[in-house]
Amino acid sequence: MNKHLTRFLHSSLLITFLTISCKKDDPATVTGPQQQVNISNLVTGDISTELNPSGKAPLTARLSFTSPEPTSVSIEVLGDIPVAQSFESKATSHVIPVLGLYPNTTNQVVVRVSSNVLYAVDTLTIDTDSLFYALPDIEIIQKGANMEPGMNLCGLSLGNDGVFSSNPIMFDSNGDIRWHLNLMSFPRISWPIKRLANGNLFFGSESTIYEYNMLGEEIRRWNLSGYDIHHEVVELPNGNFVIAVSKHFTTINDGTGVVNSVEDHIIEIDRSSGNVVTEWDLRQILDVDRHDLTNGNGDWFHMNGIAYQEEDDCLIVSGRNQGVVKINRKNELIWILAPDRGWGNAGEDGTGPATAPYLLKAVDGTGAPYANEIQDGSMSASDFDWTWGQHAPLILENGNLMLFDNGFSRFFDPAATDNYSRAVEYQIDEGNKTIREMWSYGKSRGLETYSMIISDVDQLANGNVLFLPGVMFQAEPYAKFIELDYPGNNVVFEAKIKFKNALGSGAFGWGQFDIMYRAHRMSLYP
Questions:
Q1: How would residue 416 be classed by pLDDT, with cut points 50, 70 and 90?
Q2: Cα 46 from Cα 48, distance rounded (Å)
Q3: Predicted model pTM
């Protein structure tokens, strides 16, 4: 017997104290203040079921039906981890999204239709196919009672013989994939997938931002002429978008000559019109020929994350090849979070202002500066280290800054073999230009959670922290999804996303291996 069908038989017993499930020929019963009636009393004709209405989200369905009088609807997908949702607005015509179906299963979906004094219950069956064969297997290592509720969204992209084909998934705490958006038709990677304030999803690909609903249907798109999106799109409180972009036809002098530059501009677009209202040019305020960490040539900064600080209308920007910077709306530098080594003059040709005065100085718990060897990144202290090739800047509820410290070329040593990645929290005093490390996790796990590229950190509604190394290059490659009881270091949930590299070679090359770029905990329904 299918394992999920067995779960449904158990789950249906658990819900009988809430509702009495009936077929259309079941007799009417009375429970509580409402009278239960046959489903035909509240539904005109049959309930129409359409599996995967968009063609992109195979674990979703749409229910359609009409009622002779205004009714509200609630649904529940049964299983070990049921998914329930109520639609309280009364109407006579209903189009209901069903999310969280199990793959390769005859799913049972309980539908309850209610008027003011009557209700009826029907149990539908929806058959789903097997998952796309290239998706990863998910192993649950640990789960505890104090987890933040919800599903686990992974910004998954599959290495596809030289391109990354994005296939975001959501899996439950049992490791079952319950939602999948197949974006194989997109010619390039689609990232980062996030939820808008209106409940829909959004992401960028090439020169376009897309808004999708959870059924995988496109709601809107914004086309950006003259720019290519990469790594980051942020929704501002006013609804506008801030986007990490490469601007067409930009150049720098990288110390050897003039080269085309990429991933060094930011734009804000108006949500309604799609017009650019602000542009930031990082070439003008940073040192474009600082190659101490790595020589990216035209990819001198490699912007990979933006956090918006609403209190002062500023951006905190992560550049993998340089460090983290804070800038204001006038494209002025506030501070630089990076080792002291190598910072010269700004400007696309190196003739701009000095950058070194903006460097933060590392201090300990008493406010005393560390030794020069720590300031310039040659070594770390027991309670302080810089970030190396970091991603995913995050402003915490306490106002501190958290980052995913990849550990790439830690201490400027690309050949290091004992590396590690961390989630790390810093307290920054902007007036005194100092930085103090407050918390970290990951060093003790060493290579087990060392992800030299991509990756994410997040803070949940219950205060816990997600630590999300995006790809471990080992004999059997994987990513990790780890929830910590911050500010402690206890693991309350851990999953291993076991990549198959079924569409690529698995070798270290663009589009040849599977990755998890960003990840979040959220409900299936907004």
A1: confident
A2: 6
A3: 0.92
